[in-house]
Specification:
TIM Barrel; OMPdecase; 8-stranded parallel β-barrel
Length: 234
């Protein structure tokens, strides 16, 4: 999958209001063209804003991590497709993934299956009653997603190389938990730098706090795009 470096950076608009999100998009200008809207912003008017961004020509990643009964997931996915967004996440459970694929239909919406969250490690899986390590669980979920017809996988870049070997070259790999050198780890447990993520096989890198909390968000975004471009050229 060949994607321009600037389009491989997905800026997470993890802010509490649409006004703040609009200001960030304006600040970043052409440094970033792909934006993620997660749960916090979604419940504060972000769904409508997602449609506005898409209509303005931006790529939009609607990160709702859907997981419900099949009928509900299918219908919600159909509504997301009508917004014109590029990506929609669902949790990587077989029934949920099948429902999302059905809801996507023939639209251009790409469904991403979320594997083990980057804020989890083996002990968190064990506490949830899930047998097996993070690596084993992600591998199983990736194989199921491929068989079901999901368009891409959300995983830590730490598992990207292994997932790429499972799903092949055509499925998109989207990696959150990206932390440039010197950035605080925060609540993430499985973090990787931008260049290392690209070399591991990631197609898209999701970056939030290292950009939106930076003294100069545009400069921070440009630096990450530069790292992506340099790593992709190796």
């Amino acid at each position: 999958m060949i994607v321009a470096a600037r389009e491989r950076l997905i800026v997470a608009l993890d802010v509490p209001t649409v006004g703040e999100a609009e200001a960030l998009v304006e600040t970043l200008a052409e440094s970033a063209v792909f934006y993620k809207i997660g749960l916090e912003l979604a419940v504060a008017g972000g769904i409508e804003f997602a449609g506005e961004l898409a209509a303005a020509g931006y790529h939009v990643f609607l990160d709702l991590k859907l997981h419900d009964i099949g009928n509900t997931v299918e219908r919600a996915t159909r509504r997301a497709a009508e917004l014109g967004v590029s990506f929609l996440t669902v949790h990587a459970y077989p029934q949920t993934m099948r429902a999302a694929v059905a809801g996507r239909g023939s639209s251009d919406l790409r469904i991403l299956a979320v594997t083990v969250l980057t804020s989890w490690d083996d002990s968190d899986l064990a506490a949830a009653g899930i047998q097996g390590s993070v690596a084993e669980t992600v591998a199983r979920q990736a194989a199921q997603a491929r068989e079901i017809g999901i368009d891409g996988i959300v995983c830590s870049a730490a598992e990207a190389a292994a997932v790429r070997a499972i799903v092949g070259p055509d499925m998109a790999l989207v990696t959150p938990g990206i932390r440039p050198a010197g950035a605080a780890q925060g609540d993430q447990k499985r973090v990787v730098g931008p260049a290392a993520a690209v070399r591991a096989g990631a197609d898209y890198l999701v970056v939030g706090r290292p950009i939106i909390a930076a003294p100069d968000p545009k400069r921070a975004a440009d630096a990450i795009v530069g790292e992506i471009a340099a790593a992709a050229a190796i």
